[in-house]
Amino acid sequence: MNPIQSLREAWNALSKEEKTAAGVLGAIDTAAKGIALWDLARTDSKKLRGPKWLWTSVIGAVNTIGWLSYFIVGKKY
């Protein structure tokens, strides 16, 4: 069985409520990633722990933990 088929079967096994929850959580995660990237673009480099290119990669590549770590660790308040 290929990975796509496995994912499709797992998705089809979810209830309507579970699919709705997954969609809502996915939308929240995507919106938070967008907000983090928007904030990063407008933040002065002096107010960051590390270079912008690094935080762009972390936010973009490391789903929920990426944008959370940017706001908790990467940004100086």
UniProtKB/TrEMBL annotation:
Membrane topology listed for this record:
Multi-pass membrane protein
Residue ranges crossing the lipid bilayer per the database entry: 20-41, 53-73
Q: Which UniProt key words apply to this protein?
A: Cell membrane, Membrane, Transmembrane, Transmembrane helix
Domain Cardiolipin synthase N-terminal: residue ranges = 35-74
Question: What's the domain of life for this entry?
Answer: Bacteria
User: Record's InterPro entries?
Assistant: CLS_N
Which Pfam families does this one have? PLDc_N
Name of the protein this chain belongs to: Cardiolipin synthase N-terminal domain-containing protein
